[in-house]
């Protein structure tokens, strides 16, 4: 490994298990020399995250539900006490009631709309506001999106609207925090086999379709997303902010499926 992130410290939010995108990113960043802290959502996930964190030498773990201001404060207070400053935050968090990731978008309920946008988009703003004072020399904030934000994707529904809001928030945050030397970007992987991914109706078909049609002939892997995240959070990403970086095997350039898959 190249020690791309030696000397950098950061928070990883959103590891649920060893298939989580956040874990793929954490593993690569740790291999590149970064020191990591983790948040997890509730005790059950905590039990899974603890050994993963230990395997990359981290003993900073905080239970944090992004709908709860006090737990967000606790997470950033802990970082301040332990490290004083941080260099990056990875925000890999999204939620919608599973029942609305099937059926028609037009049936989205007000309550799930509010909840999905709050957890999947507003939490990034909440995190950025708390991270800023801990990044006096600048830093990087990375979030995760999906191209269902701007292309209609079966059953992605309210999550597509949440990701569109999230991508817009990335641009506004990048502009606000640019003068502080803080870069804000999103990675946009194709479909991946994770807990959140499996909650979307037709997930297996979407995964297979992308795998069979992406120009590179395969979906994103945890390693590929991790590598892109490490590049962006490293000094090599120093001039990139407000960007949505596709990590989808090139699927997004297509106007229709590959010739052999039509009809
Ligand atoms: P995952 O289920 O492993 O991770 C989702 C995480 O969100 C979990 O750790 C969960 O605990 C956390 N979370 C949900 N509600 C929360 C709350 N209220 N407070 C704190 N944490 C909360 O699935 P993943 O696929 O790794 O998802 C990570 C990110 O990647 C999400 O933003 C997702 O939309 C995005 N993404 C996923 C795919 C895919 O196909 N899996 C593709 C593109 C983007």
UniProtKB/TrEMBL annotation:
Q: Where does NAD(+) bind?
A: 14, 20-21, 41, 65-66, 93, 163
- In what pathway does it function? Lipid metabolism; fatty acid biosynthesis
Reaction equations catalysed = a 2,3-saturated acyl-[ACP] + NAD(+) = a (2E)-enoyl-[ACP] + NADH + H(+)
CDD domains in UniProt: ENR_SDR
Q: What is its EC number?
A: 1.3.1.9
By its UniProt entry, which InterPro entries does this protein fall under?
Answer: Enoyl-ACP_Rdtase_NADH, NAD(P)-bd_dom_sf, SDR_fam
Keyword vocabulary terms for this entry: Fatty acid biosynthesis, Fatty acid metabolism, Lipid biosynthesis, Lipid metabolism, NAD, Oxidoreductase
Record-level Gene Ontology MF annotations: enoyl-[acyl-carrier-protein] reductase (NADH) activity
Pfam families assigned to the protein according to its UniProt record, in alphabetical order: adh_short_C2 (PF13561)
Q: Where is the active site?
A: 146, 156
Instruction: Name the Gene Ontology biological process terms.
Output: fatty acid biosynthetic process
Going by the entry's taxonomy, the superkingdom of the source organism is recorded as Bacteria
Q: Which family does it belong to?
A: Belongs to the short-chain dehydrogenases/reductases (SDR) family. FabI subfamily.
This one is known as: Enoyl-[acyl-carrier-protein] reductase [NADH]
